[in-house]
Design goal:
Two copies of one chain form a homodimer. The N and C termini of chain A lie far apart (39 Å). Helix content of chain A is 66%, strand content 0%. Chain A has a single domain, classed as Four Helix Bundle (Hemerythrin (Met), subunit A). In chain A, helix 2 runs antiparallel to helix 6, helix 3 runs antiparallel to helix 5 and helix 5 runs antiparallel to helix 6. The longest helix of chain A is centred in the N-terminal third of the chain and has 26 residues. Chain A is an all-alpha fold. Chains A and B meet through helix 2 and helix 3 of A and helix 2 and helix 3 of B.
């Protein structure tokens, strides 16, 4: 698959991403915390199913890979809307204070993941395991970079 | 909008639904519980944003309504994959034992909600508030019916 093909596929996938405003959309801080924890957990599960195929721990099934990657791409925009002002308190969570004090840098991480998720979905759409493997690594790295910087152990 | 138009739009929306197998996809029961709680919570938040517009508590914005309805329709298939055998234990949750002992009936509720979510997304796509209102009621009823039957207070 050429780079141009990948770029076109990624652009096609990108238009399906939602443009939900990041403004306060939660009745209370606890809701925002549950929302981001819930959406990140669901993303992690679907991302992990692709990872299992990429790492040879599950048989490669192009259709299943694409469904999971499409879900990850659809969900990738959600969690960040729930890190608004004041949502650092209200319930137990593992996000470090820097997620709020370094908001621009935090958002760069979020944008990086969203972009990688689009590329992953485009790679999955090709039905080729090598393409999926090539896109999975950078996507996983974008998860890890943000977790290392902004998630307490 | 004619019933035929609604039916066609619903059919178009339906093809975007994922066909994830309901088989055991979780490493442990606790993961399934977190997954279904997380996905249901995210669905509830987006469904609630549509409800606010339908009930006049938020200004109607056709684009926002459609984004939220599309998300609900995309997510509507997820929670039920996490009610597999053995997932009635493993972490605190509110699902009643009947969700496992009356599986066929429980699945009917899930299917009803999925169908209503598709109709809601189709209605939102028309950009017409009256269509949205007409589809919201039955969708909300499908949530309530299942909660009344299978969720502890």
């Amino acid at each position: 698959m050429s780079l141009k093909t990948i770029a076109l596929a990624a652009a096609a996938a990108a238009v399906t991403l939602v443009s939900l405003p990041a403004a306060a959309q939660f009745a209370k801080s606890e809701d925002a915390i549950k929302y981001r924890q819930g959406s990140l957990f669901v993303i992690g599960q679907h991302f992990g199913r692709i990872g299992a195929m990429v790492n040879g721990k599950a048989p490669f099934d192009a259709k299943v890979a694409q469904e999971n990657a499409d879900l990850v791409a659809s969900l990738a925009a959600l969690p960040w809307t729930a890190f608004g002002p004041g949502t650092d308190k209200g319930a137990a969570h593992k996000a470090k204070p820097e997620a709020w004090t370094e908001q621009a840098k935090f958002n760069e991480h979020a944008d990086k993941f969203k972009a990688e998720a689009v590329k992953l979905a485009a790679a999955a759409k090709t039905g080729n395991l090598d393409n999926l493997k090539a896109a999975f690594g950078p996507a996983a790295s974008s998860c890890k970079a943000c977790h290392d910087a902004y998630r307490s152990r």
